[in-house]
Write a structure and sequence with these properties.
Distance between the termini: 64 Å
Shape: globular
Helix content: 55-70%
Enzyme class: transferase
Structural class: alpha+beta
Radius of gyration: 38 Å
GO cellular component, one term: plasma membrane
Largest sheet: 10 strands, mixed
Number of strands: 18
Strand order of the largest sheet: 9-10-11-6-5-12-15-14-16-13
Protein name: chitin synthase
Mean pLDDT: 84
InterPro entries: Chitin_synth, Chs-1/2_IV_N, Nucleotide-diphossugar_trans
Number of helices: 41
Keywords: Cell membrane, Coiled coil, Glycoprotein, Glycosyltransferase, Membrane, Transferase, Transmembrane, Transmembrane helix
Strand content: 5-15%
Number of domains: 4
């Protein structure tokens, strides 16, 4: 218990550390972004005079400098970079989504409205950053940035729910907040008296217009006519956003540059000097420093000085503006990432809202401090900031004057009104790891106002929490009580949205250790669910991750012939092992001696059922299938649990269709194999994916193979790069094509869709059906989901461990099923790509092209590997290409002939031998490559290619530090490439007729009558063979079979390694006859009754 306590304390400390680090990252990066932006705008004012450091000039004299047009142009480029980078990011994101996902095209009116709003928003940003902020001192400019919420404030007031009991109070506060925001229109213009500052109202209105969508509320009955149509407009613009943002960001960038030219023209400069002087501005040049004599006048009027006429010329640091712009862009993007991360991991209140709210006060205090240092000593930042650059310092020197005469206290009203308008960010209800599109109304941020844009852009979460008092209603439709009368429940209830997890595991011939691992995973999940239920029921804790649980195990071929009677059956040794193992697994999970109650035994039409109650009060229901009564194999077990849970348990409930639909949407089937090992957190991560995307039909986790031996080592690296590269790529640019049945979560509503569950029950009638339907059932189910428009995703953090084949033959037999089924399902998807692209928003034509290229690569793979081996032998041994070609062709040709003529055991033996030979050749290749690199150097093309190839794996592994140990097996993967990409393909294609499972095969128990018949046939075969030993000398022997046979047009037949027929076909016919006889006896007994 002590170790557990320290673990709990460590977890809490890590969570606290995460809160603090994300808070500091968000606040710090936002302050840096705001500070660097104000530094940029401070250099845009024409004829601005800056006190110059005299450290290297004359310590007893004072100097000033005036910013030249060339210097201002460099900072105009910096301002343009700050604005353009987020817009380019939006453009790239929109193009990517439009290319790889289905997008909706806007109508002409919708595009015109979006175009107009974004144009006005850009003009407002340009007025603020190019005209207003350069005319204000840096502190006043930072204060003004908190007064950009007037349009959201107005819409917030109009969109309030009038039925709310606190509507009047909220409306009064809304009016006060709007009034406070409106004071910014007149405060600085009246105090400074500059005509240009009267553009502040225009900038505030136009900029705040850009965030209108987030403040029109959701559609409901109490909305006014105008608000209702604004809400509909908002929804239409949201659907077409990525299509319109393929154009609008480029237009906004162009418009901003036009505004830059206009700002130069307004200030009396040549507008086109922005382009004409760019080369000179970003080159070596000098600036002029003037010596001045400082005069101290009245304290209220500040300091004054006169020019002495002495000037100096000093070199500029022309790249300073670019460095500052780079810092601003990096800090803003980092702030966006940290803020998004805070929202995704549900620490929004402290690390997002509170942090961004503090940006203004922290930045203003920091600016006052920096300006005070620079004002007191012009050389305070010597060596850090160029002497001719600094912020526009406030024109006061005493704190009392700043607070009184400068009206700084008004800024507190702006700050509080902003906090009220973005008050919804204090009440987040989004799910964990929510999609960015759900967290923010617009794809990215605004580079000029990073903190305000994130707060105003954060969407409102309207979903309410479901407490235990609401979940009580779920008892009537819970997993464990579907037989109760619920005819009076007709309306959708909050409890219908509770997650319901049905564990559906398929078992067959698992070992005891595999069963223990599987049962421990189930019992851990039971423990987790029980703790959540108790915390919610007795402690009143609202748990957003609460779920209900039931475990169903479908045991294939669970019966065998009885030891007492050939006409009866009994459970086999694997079922007995499961019954004996469950107490052991429970004891290991709960760290004490646990003994469950004996299972309830229920006879069923398909065999039988065993029901256990776990310590957490959840049930394990083991369905024992008798293959003489119901179809066996994994796909039919899946069909069975789909129809049992979704068809019988859910659809037969006497509730409304609407409630059934909501329940089905939140019902999840956790498909497992009988040897899987996982933790509850892995399931929680998959549920998070389901919650954030209602169109997600299936989600899979990261599968880790476990075992020992060379084949296990190979599979560890193969699984690693398969998940790191292929599955992650499919997840990002389209959809994952296969969610493996060993550990995947399926949405009940998706499985119940047309042409998914119904089509999945089709029996195989054609040759390709046996390959596509029965050999790769998991991939086929995902193909059906994709063709119906559902998405399949991958969660790299959801870890599960499965036992993999440890022997060479088992591995080849497993892949003999996987390779053809993969090709068949991808061919099926590509054949109907037009319809799939049309109905599935996540599959685009480019994604189909990507899969087509992969398919072509798979088809050409064996030939490519063959030629690679020819080249390798040529380079290592020095033999000619023709000799290497023939030398490689001989074993491959022999193996193809063996695969076409011999039994699978002999095929695997040959494959094993050739694999060992090729592995030794590949080792020589590795040595040859190393020697070649030493001889040619690291800059040779072959060296660069080799380093790039292996470097890709190392970089990918570094991005997955928990799995970096998989790199240890890269050599085993490399030396077995010829076997796995050449011999395995040949073996798979030559054994398409073999539809057996290939792994975990055991000899079936036989009746005494069958054993007696086998013995009799064996004796007859032996006698026949003895007689043929004599007859064959005279050419009179009976027909025999050979390991290798061939003939020409029936004229003759040549047999090698001959052996007598084993009469297996006769034995099979005898088994059929016995089965028919047994059925006739049962029918006769029923007829007699």
């Amino acid at each position: 218990m002590a170790s557990t306590k320290w673990i709990d304390i460590s977890v809490k400390l890590l969570k606290l550390l995460a809160y603090i680090l994300v808070f500091v990252a968000t606040l710090g990066s936002a302050v840096i972004a705001k500070g660097t932006l104000l530094f940029i705008t401070s250099q845009l004012k024409k004829d601005r005079q800056i006190t110059h450091c005299n450290k290297l000039l004359a310590l007893d004299q004072q100097f000033v400098t005036v910013l030249t047009l060339e210097e201002r142009i460099t900072w105009l480029w910096a301002a343009a970079i700050v604005f353009c980078v987020p817009e380019l990011g939006t453009f790239v994101r929109s193009v990517r989504i439009c290319f790889f996902k289905t997008h909706h095209k806007p109508s002409v009116s919708q595009f015109v409205i979006a175009f107009t709003i974004e144009t006005l928003h850009t003009i407002g940003i340009a007025i603020l950053s190019l005209i207003i902020l350069p005319e204000l001192d840096v502190v006043n400019g930072a204060m003004l940035m908190n007064a950009m919420c007037i349009i959201p404030g107005i819409l917030n007031a109009f969109s309030r729910d009038r039925t709310d009991s606190r509507y009047s109070i909220k409306l009064i506060i809304d009016v006060l907040a709007i009034s406070a925001q409106a004071t910014a229109f007149v405060v600085w213009p009246m105090l400074d008296g500059k005509p240009v500052l009267w553009s502040i109202p225009v900038a505030c209105l136009l900029m705040s217009l850009g965030w209108w969508e987030n403040y029109v509320g959701s559609c409901h009955r109490n909305s006014s006519y105008v608000m209702y149509h604004l809400q509909l407009l908002r929804e239409n613009l949201k659907k077409t956003r990525y299509c319109t943002h393929r154009i609008l960001p480029l237009w906004k960038i162009t418009l901003f540059f036009i505004c830059v030219l206009i700002s130069l023209q307004v200030q009396g400069d040549n507008a086109f000097s922005f382009f004409e002087l760019t080369r000179d501005a970003f080159g070596e040049r000098l600036y002029v420093v003037n010596e001045v004599q400082v005069l101290l006048s009245d304290a209220n009027d500040g300091l004054d000085y006169t020019l002495t006429g002495k000037t100096l010329e000093l070199p500029v640091y022309w790249s300073t503006s670019l460095w500052v712009a780079a810092i601003q862009v990096t800090a803003a993007y980092f702030c966006f990432g940290a803020a998004k991360f805070a929202c995704k991991i549900l620490i929004q209140n402290f690390s997002f809202t509170f942090a961004l709210t503090l940006v203004g006060p922290v930045a203003i205090n920091l600016l006052i401090f920096l300006c005070g240092l620079r004002n007191a000593d012009p050389c305070a930042f010597y060596g850090t900031i160029p002497d001719y650059l600094f912020y526009e310092i406030p024109p006061v020197y005493f704190l009392r004057e700043y607070i009184g005469r400068q009206m700084a206290w008004v800024w507190l009203l702006w700050l509080m009104s902003q906090a009220w308008i973005v008050g919804h960010t204090w009440l987040p209800r989004c799910e964990r790891v929510a999609a960015t599109d759900k967290l923010f109304a617009k794809p990215l941020y605004n580079g000029v106002l990073i903190d305000q844009s994130l707060l105003l852009n954060r969407t409102k979460d309207d979903d309410a929490d479901i407490g235990f008092e609401n979940s009580k209603d779920a008892d009537n439709v819970s997993i464990a009580s579907s037989e109760k009368d619920m005819s009076d429940m007709t309306d959708i209830k909050p409890s219908d949205s509770i997650s319901r997890i049905y564990i559906c595991a398929t078992m067959w011939h698992e070992t005891k250790d595999e069963m223990v691992d599987f049962l421990k995973s189930i019992l851990r999940l039971d423990e987790d669910q029980s703790a959540r239920r108790v915390a919610q029921k007795y402690l009143g804790i609202i748990d957003p991750d609460y779920y209900e649980l039931e475990c169903n195990i479908f045991f294939d071929d669970g019966f065998e012939i009885s030891d007492h009677s050939a006409d009866d059956s009994q459970v086999n040794r694997f079922v007995k092992c499961l019954v004996d193992t469950i107490d052991e697994a429970a004891s290991e999970v709960h760290l004490t001696n646990v003994k469950l109650r004996p299972p309830v035994k229920i006879p069923t039409p398909y065999g039988g059922r065993l029901v256990w109650t776990m310590p957490g009060k959840n049930k394990i229901i083991c369905h024992l299938k008798d293959k003489s009564k119901v179809r066996h194999k994994k796909r039919w077990s899946q069909v069975m649990y789909m129809y049992y849970i979704l068809g019988h348990r859910l659809m037969d409930l006497p509730i409304s269709v609407n409630r059934k639909e909501v329940i089905a949407e939140n019902t999840y089937l956790l498909a497992l194999d009988g040897d899987i090992d996982f933790k509850p957190s892995a399931v929680t991560l998959l549920i998070d994916l389901m919650k954030k995307d209602k169109n997600l039909g299936a989600a899979c986790g990261r599968i880790h193979p476990v075992g020992s031996g060379f084949m296990t080592w190979y599979q560890k690296f193969e699984y690693a790069i398969g998940h790191w590269l292929q599955k992650a790529t499919e997840h990002m640019i389209g959809c994952v094509l296969c969610s493996p049945g060993c550990f995947s979560l399926f949405r009940g509503k998706a499985l119940m869709d047309d042409n998914v569950m119904k089509k999945y029950t089709l029996t195989s009638h054609e040759a390709r059906h046996y390959v596509q339907y029965d050999q790769g059932e998991d991939r086929w189910l995902c193909t059906l989901l994709l063709q119906r428009g559902y998405r399949v995703e991958y969660s790299a953090a959801s870890d599960a461990y499965t036992h993999c084949p440890e022997l060479f033959g088992e591995f080849y037999n497993q892949r003999r099923r996987w390779v053809p089924s993969t090709l068949a399902n991808i061919f099926d998807l590509l054949a109907e790509y037009k319809r799939t692209v049309k109905v599935n928003d996540n599959i685009s034509t480019l994604y189909i092209v990507y899969q087509t290229l992969l398919m072509i690569g798979t088809i050409l793979g064996p030939g490519t590997i063959f030629l690679m081996m020819v080249g390798a032998m040529n380079s290592v041994t020095g033999m000619s290409n023709m000799q290497a070609l023939i030398l490689n062709l001989i074993p491959i040709g022999i193996y193809v002939a063996v695969c076409l003529t011999c039994k699978s055991e002999i095929q695997l033996m040959f494959a094993n031998m050739i694999t060992c030979v090729y592995a030794m050749i590949m080792m020589l290749v590795i040595i040859g490559i190393a020697l070649q690199i030493v001889e040619d150097g690291w800059l040779a093309p072959s060296s660069i290619f080799t380093v790039a190839t292996f470097g890709l794996f190392f970089v990918t592994a570094a991005l997955h530090p928990q799995e970096i140990s998989c790199l240890m097996y890269i050599c085993i993967y490399y030396i077995t490439i010829p076997s796995m990409y050449l011999l395995l393909i040949v073996y798979s294609l030559c054994n398409l007729n073999n539809v057996s499972w290939g792994t975990r095969e055991i000899e079936q128990k036989k009746t005494p009558k069958m054993l007696e018949m086998e013995k009799k046939l064996a004796e007859e075969a032996k006698k026949k063979m003895d007689s043929q030993n004599i007859l064959k000398k005279f050419g009179l022997a009976d027909e025999t079979s050979g390991t290798l046979e061939f003939g020409i047009a029936g004229l003759f037949r040549c047999m090698c390694c001959t052996n007598p027929k084993d009469h297996k076909d006769d034995l099979h016919l005898l088994q059929i006859a016995n089965s028919i006889e047994k059925i006739e006896k049962k029918l006769l007994a029923l007829y007699v009754k």
